[in-house]
Amino acid sequence: MGESNAQRIRVLADACAGEAVLRHVALDGAEQAFTWRELDDRSSRLAGALAARGLGAGDRLGIGLRNSPEFVFAVFAAWKLGAVPVPVRWDLPEWELARLREVVAARVHLSADDLAWIDTTADGPVPDLPDVVSPHGHGICSSGSTGLPKVILSDRPAFHDPVFSTPLMQMWRPVARPQTILVLAPMYHANGFTTLFGLLAGDRLVLSAKFDAARAVDAIERHRVTTFTATPTMLQRIADLPGIDARDLSSLDWILQGAAPMPPSLARRWCALIGPERLAMAYGMTEALGITALRGDEWLARPGSVGRGLRGTEIRILDDKGDDLPPGRPGDIYLRSASYHGYTYLGDAPRLPTTPDGFQTAGDLGHLDADGYLYLLDRRADLVITGGANVYPAEVESALIDHPAIADVVVLGLPDQEWGQRVHAVVEPADPASPPSADEVIAYAKSRLAAYKVPKTVEFTEIPRSAATKVNRGAMRAARGG
């Protein structure tokens, strides 16, 4: 199968020993730079220290660290021991973190308390390490739509495969390498972790300890960043920065948006900021069932689409009986792709529904057009059924986010005696000292949505987003009696 990830690290250390390939922007804005030689040596020494703590081939290494050089050292060290690196969210309440760690069942778990210990391994001889390959390249923790912790292990062993570091934009045109990749997402999220595959392919990383819109733009200008992956929330916060139109974004060759549907107004804003041919939008999931994508110029011709299947991805839209639906009819999105290597679940979360011929669904709803372009509506678990009508929260959120006094919004379905469920909007005002009124928000929604989709109730509060800018809708509903 070619080089293992561990072998690839050594090859790059020999070939590019003196070039700075990893830059870290700390919480206070301070920066560190590391060469491949330093990454190789530091991770080998850490691997030796982890082996002394009992970590070996096939074991799982829990990594509960912020984006940092130590995070990268730990992942590389796991690969060098044939262990499975499993990033673990560090921004969870203690009770939830304890439950997740029980599912991960790591032989060794590294947290912020271990940073000083990791730093003590920086010096000394580089140990001889076994030539082994992890049976699972990595794991990603997810709560999915059920709220139950689950760990998704890639069934692909830790071999270097250029397919997984090929820029998505290369599906449309050549992309110059090496890229300079700005890492905005926490590396416990798939969007953050997979940038390490670009590093193994010879790209350079600029690693942000935490997403901050202003610092992200500073980093783009200072380091001539050529690409990054971001959620719509991240892109919204960057686009809302004062003076963003005057900033130098010319180094950006292309960017990728994923993780959630892109509000149309925000897609058009980024098409104007960098050019539609430099914006790609994708739909996929941690289980790597397949991927769909399209470029900004395609999106302008098909607003709201998340593209067609790439890399051999096949798409079916099925009804509740498992029958295929025609173009334009919404149903459950099922994907299948021979390009991906499957996954293994840990934990008690329910497995994904699967058809007899191997199509699977992550619980999302959508429809296809006549040309095979997919339109994502929402997660089935988030669907609001009010008065017998289906309301997709993402559509309501896209309508409300354009209000100049709204910084963020999450729409939920809450129990209602008259309607079964009512559409409820949780709004974070742009200016907390001067929020819009509930009547103003409702009137704005009425001007943009069918009457049954308009929120019946509105509340104003700060929205609790994770470091990956995601929200736990289940927890938000439960806190409001849902």
Structural features, described:
The structure is a single chain. Helices cover 27% and strands 25% of the residues. It has 14 helices and 24 strands. It folds into two domains: 370 residues, Rossmann fold (3-Layer(aba) Sandwich), CATH 3.40.50; 97 residues, GMP Synthetase, Chain A, domain 3 (2-Layer Sandwich), CATH 3.30.300.30. It is of the alpha/beta class and 482 residues long. Strands 2-1-9-8-10-11-12-13-14-19-18-16-15 form a 13-stranded mixed β-sheet, with helices on both faces. It starts with a helix and ends with a helix. The chain is globular and about 70 Å long. It holds the Pfam family AMP-binding_C. Keywords: Ligase. One of its GO terms (molecular function) is acid-thiol ligase activity. InterPro entries: AMP-bd_C, AMP-bd_C_sf, AMP-dep_synth/lig_dom, ANL_N_sf, ATP-dep_AMP-bd_enzyme. This is Bile acid-coenzyme A ligase.
What distance lies between the first and last C-alpha atoms, to the nearest angstrom?
50 Å
What's the CATH topology name of the largest domain? Answer: Rossmann fold
What is the overall number of helices?
14
Query: What summary fits the major beta sheet?
Result: 13 strands, mixed
Strand ordering within the main sheet: 2-1-9-8-10-11-12-13-14-19-18-16-15
Looking at the structure, what is the overall shape? globular
- Rg over CA atoms, rounded to whole Å, is 23 Å
Assign the structural class, choosing from mainly alpha, mainly beta, alpha/beta, alpha+beta, or little secondary structure. alpha/beta
CATH class of the largest domain: Alpha Beta
